[in-house]
């Protein structure tokens, strides 16, 4: 507010950083209106900056969520290849995967066990204190591994109440079993409880130190996958000048080629059918993940809105039995309906507000699937 009212004075005032210019004489109502407008503009500016900050947080949270879901998907794919009984769960202990061996051992069914708390399997069992303590410390990020490994492992002999959930009933039987608890680092948020049969636990003692059982191999693979993800995260931001200052690290990175060569030459190639079936499951899981993250809706709503998968009512609950079979390799039909899987991916990709990175990831899996389908058609 000034007595200077020439055009040059106006330009000079605004150039020096003034938000407005009010020459004298002025009306009180005009002054009040200009001040109110500036306050509104200031609020809009602060809100805009806050929105930018929140969007950056949201992006980092989305990336973390994608990474966790990817690690869970990798773990589930490994577990589906073994015959031993297992229960896979994630923080804060909800069961998300198990196999038929487990339901047979526990004398229960899939509906009863799915989504239950992992600790409920042995909470009322004898000699389970160490397992419960490890789970409690894992959930509070207070679990330390003396060996420095990324996977915490604990094997115990406990008594389970069979059938599952009948610990207080007269028909429950207490059965002694060996279990191995594996908890992957807090940043992974996943764990596995293996229920070992008498044959598996007795063979373990006579094996050589270089021989591992299925539970140990899952832990080794899980730790290797975590290490690969950690290396990838560090290398993605590593600068050449930093690498040049670490000659020993540089030598180690060069030697990775030999490890990759050993893996390529010693491990058998996936046959085309196995690769094709695994890719269908991967595409379906990717489509469901993109749907859940983008819409905040469930797989039941995806089945209903896409009009591709049937939704049934069982015991008063909505279920997607056919849809669910395409989320697990072991349950995939012998002759999978690949067209429905591809249509599901296209339906999810049609969502306008899907994030770019999620869209690119799903499009990549879709192209991989189409390439395998084309290869299978040629063969």
- Structural classification: alpha+beta
Level of helix content?
Answer: 55-70%
Between the first and last Cα atoms, what is the distance in angstroms? Answer: 82 Å
CATH topology call of one domain? Beta-Lactamase
The total strand number stands at 7
Shape by Cα distribution: elongated
Query: What is the strand content?
Result: 5-15%
- Major β-sheet profile: 5 strands, antiparallel
CATH class of one domain: Alpha Beta
Radius of gyration: 29 Å
Oligomer: single chain
The CATH architecture of one domain can be given as 2-Layer Sandwich
Order of helices and strands: HHEEHHHEEEHHHHHHEEHHH
Low-pLDDT residue intervals, each spanning 5 or more residues: 199-210
CATH superfamily of one domain: PAS domain
Provide the descriptors you would attach to this structure in a database record.
379 residues; alpha+beta; Beta-Lactamase; five-stranded antiparallel β-sheet; two-stranded antiparallel sheet; 7 strands; elongated
Description of the molecule:
- The chain is of the alpha+beta class.
- Among the domains are: 80-236, PAS domain (Beta-Lactamase, 2-Layer Sandwich); 272-378, no CATH class.
- The protein contains 14 helices and seven strands.
- The protein has helices at 7-15, 28-79, 100-106, 110-113, 129-139, 198-206, 214-235, 240-244, 247-266, 272-295, 299-306, 321-325, 338-349, 356-378; strands at residues 85-90, 94-98, 151-162, 173-184, 190-196, 312-314, 317-319.
- Strands 2-1-5-4-3 form a five-stranded antiparallel beta sheet, with helices on both faces. A two-stranded antiparallel sheet has the order 6-7.
- A hairpin with a 5-residue loop joins strand 4 (173-184) and strand 5.
- Helix 2 (28-79) runs antiparallel to helix 10 (272-295).
- The protein is elongated and about 95 Å long.
- 21% of the residues are buried.
- The model is unreliable at 199-210 (pLDDT under 50).
